[in-house]
Amino acid sequence: TIGWLNVDCGSDVPRIGPNLLLWGTDEDLTKFGINKRVPERQTLEEMSTVRFFPNQADQNCYTLPLFAQTLRYLIRAGFYYGNYDGLSNFPTFDLYIYNKKWSTVNTSSIGRPIYFEALHATHGSGSINVCMRQIRKNEIPFISSLEIVPLWVNLYPQMESNFTFSLINRINYGGNEVRYSGILSEEKYNRIWTQGAVPPNCIVVPTLPDSTAFPIPENEPPNSVMSESIASSNTSTPIILSVDLPTNQVTPQTAYFVFYFTEQAKRPSSNDTRIIDIYIDGRKRYTVAAEVNKCKVVTLYPVSVVGPKVNITLVPANSSTLAAMISAMEVFSRIDLDPAHGNNTTGGTQNRLISSYFILILAVIALINTQ
C-alpha cells in the first residue's frame, strides 16, 4: 500500500478502516466546498459524508499529491447522495481530470454508491487535479471519496501511457464482489470486482485458479475471482454478455477488453476440450482454449465500438466438446486527457499523509496493548 491515498471527502477526522487503510480528510487537498454528513450512517464509512460545491464560480477541484516520476495510477471517485441536503434532488454534473472532461455523474434514483475509475499515467508532474462542474441549474456537485493507487507493476501492458483508460465494467462472473480486504488480500491493487448477473441459460460452476507461482497471470486477477465462473448450460448455447457504453462520450469509442478464463478441476473426460470463440458485436476477435489449473487472460485492444450497447458472445468452437465458460471481464474506454504539467509542490502533503498513517497505526497498537 505504499503511496496509496484514500480521501474521505467531507470528513473532519482521519481514521483507519477495517482493512487497515488510512482514510484522510480533504482539508489539505481543496480550498472549496462545504462538508456535510448524510442522514444515515453507511456501511462504507466514507459514504457517510460528502463535500458539496454550491458556488459555480469556484473551480471545485482537488489537487492530489503524486510521486514525481512517470507512473500509472488507479484513480477512483466515489459518490453517494444519500439525500444529504434533504431536498431529494439527485444531481447530475461533470467530472474532470485536469481541464478535460472525464465523465458525467448521474446520481438519479441511485440508492447505492457509484464509482468512476480510471487508469492514468503521469509524467513526473507530482500532482493531479480532479474537479466537479455544475451543468444543470439547482443541481449541486458533490463527492464522497477519492482513492489513488500507484501501480508499481506493469498491469494492463497494452495501455499506452499517453492515454487515460476509463473503467466501464469490471465483473466477477459467478462470485461475490471482491475488494481489497487487508494486507493479506488477494486483490492487491484496490480494484473492485463487482458481482455479475448470471445470464439466461447459464449456470455457476466452481473453477480452479492458477496455482502456479510463475508466470503470474496478466493483471494479477485474485484467486477469489477465478475460483467461480459461469458456463453455458449446453454446448449449443452461447454466453451472451452486454456492455453499456458511456453515453457522454463520442462514438465510435476505442475500447480495451480483458477476458479471464479458468477451468474446472476435472473435466468429464480426459479427451474433452473447452475452446471458445470470442465475438464482439458479431465479429470474431479471438479463440482461446481453457486449460486445467491455468488462468488464461485475453486482451483485445484497440477495438472500435459504437454505443449505446456492445454485445459480447462466447461460442464453443467447432472442435470444442464442452460449453463456453468465463470467470471475469474488464472493459475500459480510451479517453484523451492532457498529462500533468504541475510541479512537485505537493510532496509535503504526501509526506504528511504518510506520517499520519503511521501515527494512527502506532496509536491503535498502543490502545490494544493497554487493554
From TrEMBL:
Q: Which UniProt keywords apply?
A: Membrane, Signal, Transmembrane, Transmembrane helix
In terms of one coarse class, where is the protein primarily found? membrane
Question: Where does the Malectin-like domain lie?
Answer: 7-333
Q: Which residues, if any, are the signal sequence? A: none
Q: Which GO terms describe its cellular component?
A: membrane
Membrane topology per record: Single-pass membrane protein
Name this protein carries in UniProt = Malectin-like domain-containing protein
Highest rank taxon of the organism: Eukaryota
